[in-house]
Specification:
- The protein is an alpha/beta fold.
- The strands form 2 sheets. It has a 10-stranded mixed sheet, with helices on both faces. Strands 5-6 form a two-stranded antiparallel ribbon.
- Helix 1 crosses helix 5, helix 2 crosses helix 4 and helix 5 runs antiparallel to helix 6.
- The radius of gyration is 17 Å and the shape is globular.
- About 40% of the residues are buried.
């Protein structure tokens, strides 16, 4: 992690509370331009969301602008990056303030899923996020035989579908999903909030950087940014070996 990402972190400008979850802000979310997209990287099948979002943050040199913590729902864990102790759930922001990323470096406990989803929805509404984008893995039993993982999509609203109007990938028509992303899609649909989920075929319980790279290919087209995937694809080759 580049020290430039965290060297300005001292005391929060503000603390926002949602159902025993607190967001420590190190930036002004109301100054213009306000973030349009919130990209979620939560641990799931193949760690696709975590790997993809972490790679996005460091490849594009996003800045750490917030931490998410809870004295009730999350374990007592602190991660150390560049000698700085921070929460394992962090918020990052692009230089143009267009893209915010929520990155979780720990699994979300089952009893914390609902409060965290409510927090994500509530905070997104408060700072006027237009679209929440979830990056996820879709575990398939024959992953070793798949040369290039497919990416599927699922949208909470009709307006969300417009994000993919020029992108040709398959919609997830039938099945079931579990975990934070599943609850978020359901709650977002009920509340009319734009949530796009990208599901890449992946391993179930082994890190899958190749699937993460495929989600980032789609994400880069949606966001209109360039993401150099060379290093991530090199890691994918090592996993195959």
């Amino acid at each position: 992690m580049s020290y430039l990402l965290i060297n300005s972190i001292h005391r929060p400008r503000r603390e926002v509370f949602y159902d025993n979850i607190v967001i420590h802000e190190y930036f002004d979310p109301y100054s213009h331009p306000q973030p349009e997209y919130l990209v979620l990287g939560l641990p799931d099948a193949g760690l696709v969301g975590s790997i993809a979002s972490r790679y996005l943050v460091f490849n594009r040199q996003f800045k750490l602008v917030g931490e998410v913590d809870s004295p009730v729902y999350f374990p007592y864990i602190t991660v150390i990056h560049c000698s700085v102790p921070i929460s394992p759930i962090q918020l990052y922001l692009s230089d143009d303030r267009k893209i915010m990323v929520l990155l979780a470096e720990i699994p979300i406990p089952a009893h914390a899923v609902y409060p965290l989803v409510r927090t994500i929805i509530g905070y997104s509404k408060e700072i006027n996020i237009k679209h929440i984008i979830s990056l996820a893995g879709l575990a398939v039993p024959n992953r070793l035989q798949i040369s290039k993982p497919k990416v599927y999509w699922l949208a909470s609203t009709k307006s969300t579908r417009e994000l993919l109007k020029d992108i040709s990938i398959e919609e997830l028509k039938e099945g079931f999903i579990v975990g934070p992303y599943a609850l978020l899609l359901k709650e977002a649909r009920r509340r009319g909030i734009s949530n796009l989920a990208l599901f890449a075929e992946s391993f179930l319980d082994m890190p899958d950087p190749e699937s993460a790279a495929e989600t980032l290919r789609i994400l880069s087209n949606i966001l209109g940014i360039d993401i150099d995937l060379k290093q991530l694809l090199e890691e994918a080759e090592l996993v195959k070996l």
